[in-house]
Write a structure and sequence with these properties.
322 residues, alpha+beta, five-stranded antiparallel β-sheet, 9 helices
């Protein structure tokens, strides 16, 4: 009999408080989620930058090791006239024993000959390698000491006596062999991709971030290994890197950074949806359901306490009149 009073009670005790609660909760979720995402993003960026720095430093050390071998007299003799083959192969094989290299090959610029470390076969000729103009530019550039080269063609068939799939690509360190300031040959040292990704771009040990899928990319092709091949099928890696950085799908974010001094990019992808987000959403949801249910119960009780006696009173008055 008192619908307006009933509506006012529900409006003041249930509807308005519920809308206020939902508004505050939504704002809390948005601001907290943005904070968590920003904090997570800065944490992952720091981790990636540190990994990139360590990787660059490691590559420089490996290049120095290869450069030391290039200064060996036997290696210089091989580059100059093709002699000292056995000693040169011994020096090259020593490099692969402890530095994470798959194989090492030496090429002479003076005679049509090349030699590789033990376990390497099917390596290409120098003329085939020079089809990539970047290698020729490196040889002609007196100011460049090392050339870090990601390639997907003219890769040896076997490393360490095991067949190698060209589609995986290989990162090579190229160093010149000098005598009397004249380039006599080059050494091409192929780095193990598994070692690169496992030792420098494996973030599974980080508790504060989710594992990242990492890709080293050159010429729109990525350096594969057993841990990123499945991820690559989910992402469009053959796109402009600046667009890939801005691209966000679901809870995934992408980050592309140029590895300084090298002609390739590091791209990482990860999910910023973590336990903190889940706990936040569940907690706010449970609290909202509880408070809204409580408000509804209070509204019902207030209606029963205030409106019901009035209804009874009106009924009595009507009965007495009758």
């Amino acid at each position: 009999m008192f619908p307006k009073l009933t509506r006012r009670i529900y409006l003041s005790i249930f509807v308005i408080p519920s809308l206020f609660l939902l508004t505050i909760s939504s704002l809390t979720i948005v601001f907290t989620n943005n904070y968590l995402r920003g904090n997570y993003s800065s944490t992952t960026a720091s981790a990636v930058n540190m990994a990139k720095t360590n990787f660059s430093f490691h590559l420089s050390l490996m290049a120095e090791d290869v450069a030391l071998v290039s200064e060996d007299q036997a290696v210089i003799s091989f580059a100059k006239d093709g002699s000292s083959i056995e000693k040169t192969q011994e020096k090259l094989s020593i490099l692969t024993s402890s530095s994470g290299l798959l194989g090492v090959a030496a090429y002479s610029l003076n005679v049509p000959t090349q030699i590789a470390s033990n376990g390497v076969s099917g390596y290409s000729s120098l003329s085939a390698l020079l089809e990539d103009g970047r290698l020729e530019d490196f040889i002609d550039n007196d100011e460049t000491a090392y050339f870090f080269w990601i390639r997907f063609t003219n890769i040896p068939d076997n490393y360490i006596f095991l067949s190698y799939d060209d589609s995986y690509g290989v990162l090579s360190i190229v160093v010149k062999i000098y005598e009397d300031d004249q380039v006599q040959g080059i050494i091409v040292a192929d780095v193990n991709s598994e070692t690169i990704y496992r030792d420098y771009f494996n973030f599974n040990s980080y508790r504060s971030i989710n594992p990242l899928a990492s890709f080293i990319i050159s010429d729109e092709q990525y350096l594969r290994y057993s841990g990123n091949e499945d991820y690559a099928q989910r992402y469009n890696l053959n796109s402009d890197y600046s667009q890939l950085v801005a691209l966000k799908g679901g809870y995934h974010q992408y980050r592309a950074t140029l590895i300084e001094d090298y002609d390739f990019y590091l791209i990482t992808s990860d999910s910023y949806y973590n336990n903190a987000n889940l706990i936040l959403f569940l907690s706010v949801g449970i609290i909202n359901i509880g408070l809204i249910t409580l408000a509804f119960i209070l509204a019902q009780r207030m209606v029963k306490k205030l409106v019901s006696p009035l209804d009874l009173l009106v009924d009595k008055i009507k009965t007495q009149k009758l």
